[in-house]
Amino acid sequence: MPRLMNETGCTAFARPLSSPEDRAELSTQSDADAVIKRNNGARASELSVSITLQGGDRALTIESIDIEPRTPRPTAPLDGGLICEPSAGGEPKIKLHADMDAATPVFRMSRSKGSGDTPYFRDNAITLTPHEQVPLRVTFTAQRGYRAFELVIHYTIAGRTEKRVVPAPEGSRWAVTALNKTYGSVYEGTIGGPFELSDEADQCGREPKPVGC
């Protein structure tokens, strides 16, 4: 099952977070999960997820993990609301990256554009012995717009080809959006503390540079 990495980052929304329920939860809690889930938020700029692959009773080989976008190209970034929170995460065995601004996003080892890094599963497969566990860290980035997608594992077991759709982390979804210059509402969190409504309308000081800056 995938687990959302607990890292510093922001979550964007299609609408401002202006309801009394949202404002009350953010002002009294350090955990924004309920607000994010209720308002269908998407990770801004970068979505990092920890996935543990586990073998069953028989050995199997994962031939590929495919990214299936729901739109041919990124659409406009979500610009209704923004929540930013600080935290930290661990270190997995295999780290893969996907540029969701690409027409056909695929997993690569390198995050540097123009590096010539080939798709990871073009030359690699992941073989699991019975009950073996292999942790992955997969990171999806967006600097141009919003993209929702599905994640599908293709594998072979006992000579048969199978596939499985990977469920999104609990309370989240497979989606990432570029940061936008301005939002209808912006909440900033502190470690162990609640979120405060920010009066900073221009987000151009964030990295990577938001769309419109």
Structure summarized in a few sentences:
The chain is mainly beta and 213 residues long. 9% of the residues lie in helices and 38% in strands.
Descriptive labels:
four-stranded mixed sheet; elongated; 213 residues; ten-stranded mixed sheet; mainly beta
Walk me through what this model shows.
With 213 residues, the protein is mostly beta strands. 9% of the residues lie in helices and 38% in strands.
Structural class: mainly beta
Radius of gyration from CA coordinates: 18 Å
**What is the arithmetic mean of pLDDT?**
87
Q: Element order, helices and strands?
A: EEHHEEEEEHEEEEEEE
Count up the helices.
Answer: 3
* Biggest beta sheet summary: 10 strands, mixed
Distance between the termini: 37 Å
% residues in beta strands: 35-45%
Shape: elongated
Number of β-strand runs: 14
- Percentage of helical residues? under 10%
Unreliably modeled segments: none
Task: Please render the helix and strand layout as text.
Elements: E1 2-4, E2 9-13, H1 20-28, H2 33-38, E3 42-44, E4 46-54, E5 60-69, E6 81-85, E7 94-99, H3 120-123, E8 126-128, E9 133-141, E10 146-157, E11 160-165, E12 175-177, E13 185-189, E14 195-197
Parallel strand pairs: 3-12, 6-13, 7-9
Antiparallel strand pairs: 1-4, 2-3, 2-6, 4-9, 5-8, 5-10, 10-11, 10-12, 13-14
